[in-house]
Amino acid sequence: MAQSAEGDLSAKPWLLMSPALAAVALLLVIPVFFIVVYSFWLRTAVGAVEAGFHLDNWAEVLTDPFYRDILFATIRIAFITTVLCAVLGYIPAYFIANAGRQHRLLLILLLMLPFWISYIIRTMSWINILGASGALNYGLMGLGITSEPIRMLYNEATVILGLVHFLLPFMILNIYVSLEAIDRNLIDAARSLGSTSWQAFREVTLPLSLPGLAAGSLLCFVLGAGTYITPMVLGGPTDAMFANLVFEAVITQLNWPLGSALSLVLLVVLGSVVALYNRFLGLGQIAKSFQ
User: Fold this and answer.
1) pTM, whole model, 2 decimals?
2) 95-107: per-residue pLDDT in tens?
């Protein structure tokens, strides 16, 4: 009887988790399995897909310098975007964390407002700002600073600008959560022991906020490296990122096997970054950002 009760208790957690496990299997594990299988199929010259175990797609992806160069460019752009988000996001997060309760709620609401607008619309709005007939060029020519429009769109700099615009709220929220959780008594103790405001920040606040900074950096890097909308809208012909290659292979060329192989390469690269982060810092800090 005791063994039966013990068996029921051991099975209960699995029963409770079964809906979540079924959702993960249906929405994640099974689709990834099909992508893996599809990456070994082959698109023939007539456009049909030939099932089987072919290594042609993987050989092309792993040996062609074209794909390697774009992968490195994607990592570089994502890294630069992450650094800029960290530098630009810390001060607003610190200001929000130290604001009064009523002002803090208002500031968080204002920070969340961009999420209420479509990401595509927010990205395309930069065309109306930086375009040849955009607001910035119009203002420069109206002030007599320039006599003709300055070309500011369709380059790597505008791609990074668009990514920072998209990802900065994620960084601010993660840093804010980390700062808000710091015990203020620790800062008061540092001040009472003779530390200046800067010393208390450097020795207490900054080290304790590093987990939030790291979590925000992970989110910004992964989301930045996996996007294709921003380089498609704001980038030029030579500013494609790796996700654009997946889009081009699947949507334009209808070469699903090649697109599957490309997507798996990106998945492995970003998964390795997440695994390294989890190895040294843990993923729990990211979950706190959404609580």
Assistant:
1) 0.87
2) 999 888 888 888 9
